[in-house]
Amino acid sequence: GKVRHFKWEVGYIHWSPDGLEGVVLGINGQFPGPTIRARAGDTVHVELTNHLHTEGVVIHWHGIRQIGTPWADGTAAISQCAINPGETFVYRFEVDKAGTYFYHGHYGMQRSAGLYGSLIVDVAEGEKEPFLYDGDFNILLSDWWHSSSHEQEVDLSSKPMRWIGEPQTLLINGRGQYNCSLAAAYFSNSSVSQCNIRGGEQYAPQILHVHPNKTYRLRIASTTALASLNLAIGNHKMVVVEADGNYLQPFSVENMDIYSGESYSVLFTADQNPSNNYWISISVRGREPRTPQGLTILKYHPNSASKLPKSPPPVAPRWDDYNYSKSFTNKILALTGSPKPPTTYNRRIMLLNTQNLIDGYTKWAINNVSLILPATPYLGSIKFGLSNAFDLKTPPDHFSHDYDVMRPAPNQNSSYGSGVYMLSFNTTIDVILQNANALRENVSEIHPWHLHGHDFWVLGYGEGKFSKKDEEKFNLKNPPLRNTAVIFPFGWTALRFVADNPGVWAFHCHIEPHLHMGMGVIFAEGVGRVKKIPTEALGCGLTGKMLMNNVHK
Ligand code: C2O
Ligand code: CU
User: Fold this and answer.
1) Hey, what CATH topology would domain 3-124 get?
2) What pTM does this model have?
C-alpha cells in the first residue's frame, strides 16, 4: 500500500455551522476536518500540530483497529498523553479494511466542539466490492449546540447536574439551518422562515447531484454527541450493504436508524420522476425531539438545485417507537461468507448500566463503577508495570443477581474507579450489556456502545434482565461484525470478540456527555507484546517521569 501524508493544525475558528456564528474546533481552518481517503492496506500518516492555546488534543480513528499500533488510537489517558499546545504528534497506522469510518477528538468534550471528519477506505487496488454502483457520496452526521463544549462540561459536572438539553441543530457534513428552514414553505404554521440561501454560505446544505437511473452508494456515519437519528431519502428505497466497515446481507428499507458511533453504506437508484428533486432528511429518535430535522437535497440532473421537492420532507417514525428500531436492528446480518464467531467463550463479562448519584453529582456507572481516567496513559503504565498509576483492583465481571433492572436502584450511590479488565491474550470474550432503569422511575435510555481496537459479533438483543437461557437464542450463524452496538431501554445486548489485539482499549457509550459522566470501561490484552511505544506518546504522568529518569541514567 501507499503512505498517505497529511499535515494538520487543530485550532478554534469562527464558523457558522447553522447560520449563527460561533466557535468550532477546526482542522487547517476547515470545519468539519478534511476527509481522508485511502485504500485498504495503505498507511495513513497524520502530522498533527496543536494550535490551541490552553488545551491538549488527541484524535481517535473510529473503527480502525490499530493492529500493531495501539499508541496511535488517539485516546487521551488511555493510549497516549494529550498533545500539548504547540506540540506535534505523528499518527501513523494502517487502514487494513475497506469501509466507511470517521475520526474525532477523544479528550474532554472536543467532539461536541466540532473536532471530527470522515475517513473513507476503498478496497485495495484490483479488489472488488460485493456490490455495484455508479458513484458515491459521503455524509457525516452530527449535532450542534449554541453553548460551548466548555460550558456543557461545567453544566454536566455541576451539583446538581445541569442537563445540556437537546441540540439546537442537526448537521449534515457540518451544515444545518437554525434561523430558517429549507422546508418552511411546506408548513403553514411554521414560525421559521424559508431559507434564502445562495449556496456559498458555511451553513448552506451540501447538495447531492445524481443522474437519472444511476445507482449510488451513500456512506453515512454519525458522530453526534447525543442524538440518535433516523435517515430517509424522500420517495427512494435504500439497500443497506455495509455497517462499521463490514459487509451485510443486503436488505431494503424506506428509512434507517443510526446511532452515534455507527456507520453504514446504502445503495439507492435515482429511479423516481427526474423532473423533481427529493429530500434527504435526518430526524431525532429515542429522545423527545426538540430539534428540527436536518435536511439536504437530492438533485436530479439537470434540475436546478433551488427547485424544491414536490412534497414535504419524510416523516420519521415516532421517537419512542422502539419496536420500529428493534425491527430495523434485527435485519442487520452479516453477508454470507463473513467470518463467524467462535462457538464458545472463555470469559463472560456482564456490564450493568446505571445512572447514579455520587455525593450529589449525577454519574453513569458500570457495575457500580463510574470511570475516571488517570493522569498516566494506561498503555504506558501497564507496559512498564508502574503501580499507583490506576486502581489495581479489577472491576467486577458481574452485578448482583437480584438487581431489579426495571426499577430505580434502592441505593443510587456508586463509586469512581479507574480499574482495568485484563483480558487473557487470544481468548474469546462475551460481553452482556445490561440496561436498567435510570434515576427517575420508568426511564431507561438508549446507549450506543463502541469498542476500540476490535470488531465484535452482535449475538443478540433481548428485553429485561439477561438470563443464562437467553444464550440459546444467540445468533452464531450470521451475526454482524460491528464496532458499535446499541442497548435499548430496559434491554440487553450480547457481544462476542477475540482479545487478539495487543493494547489498551476503551469500551464506552458513544454519547459524549455519558462518557464524560463515567460511562465506560477499559480492556487490556497482550500489552507485553506491544512493540516500542513512541516516547512522544508517554511524556506525561508517571511515564513522563520514568522517561526523564532514563535519559539521566
Ligand atoms: Cu468514536 Cu471512543 O470513540
Ligand atoms: Cu449512554
Assistant:
1) Immunoglobulin-like (2.60.40)
2) 0.98
Write the residue with the smallest CA distance to atom 1 of ligand 1.
62
Is residue 508 in contact with ligand 1, taking CB distance under 6 Å?
Answer: yes
Reduced to 3 states (helix: H, G, I; strand: E, B; else coil), residue 382 is: helix
Q: Report the percent of the chain where pLDDT is more than 70.
A: 100
Mean pLDDT of 265-284: 98
What is the bridge-based pairing of β-strands 369-371 and 415-417?
Answer: parallel
Ligand located closest to 365 CA: 2
pLDDT at 31: 98
Distance 510 CA to ligand 1 centre (A): 6
Q: Is the CB of 489 under 6 A from ligand 1?
A: no
Which CATH superfamily is 347-543 part of? Cupredoxins -  blue copper proteins (2.60.40.420)
Domain with CATH 2.60.40.420 in the chain: 3-124, 136-330, 347-543
pLDDT at residue 188 greater than cutoff 70: yes
**516 within ligand 1 shell (Cβ under 6 A):** no
Could you tell me how far CA 310 lies from the centroid of its own chain? 34
Q: Which ligand is nearest to the CA of 62?
A: 1
Ligand nearest to the CA of 518: 2
Per-residue pLDDT band for 88 (boundaries 50, 70, 90) equals: very high
Q: Rounded to an integer, what distance in angstroms lies between the CA atom of residue 49 and that of residue 376?
A: 21
Residue 553 above 60 pLDDT? no
Ligand 1 close to Cβ of residue 447 (< 6 A)? no
Q: Is 60 in the pocket of ligand 1 (CB under 6 A)?
A: yes
Identify the pLDDT of residue 474.
98
Q: Any idea which fold 136-330 has?
A: Immunoglobulin-like (2.60.40)
Stretch 449-478: mean pLDDT, rounded? 98
Locate the ligand 1 atom nearest the alpha carbon of residue 508 and give its number: 2
> 515 C-alpha to center of ligand 1: Å?
10
Q: Is the CB of 111 under 6 A from ligand 1?
A: no
**Which pLDDT score is estimated for 84?**
98
404-458 confidence digits (pLDDT tens): 999 999 999 999 999 999 999 999 999 999 999 999 999 999 999 999 999 999 9
In short, whether 514's Cβ falls inside 6 Å of ligand 1 is no
Angle at 232 between CA 226 and CA 233, to 5 degrees: 140
Instruction: Quote the cell numbers at residue 87.
Output: 506540540
Ligand nearest the Cα atom of residue 223: 1
Instruction: With H, G, I as helix, E, B as strand and everything else as coil, classify residue 71.
Output: helix
Q: Got the DSSP string for 350-418?
A: EEEEEEEEETTEEEEEETTEEE---SS-HHHHHHTT-TTSS--SPPPS---TT--TTS--SS---EEE-
- Expressed in angstroms and rounded, the spacing between residue 446 Cα and the centre of ligand 2 is 6
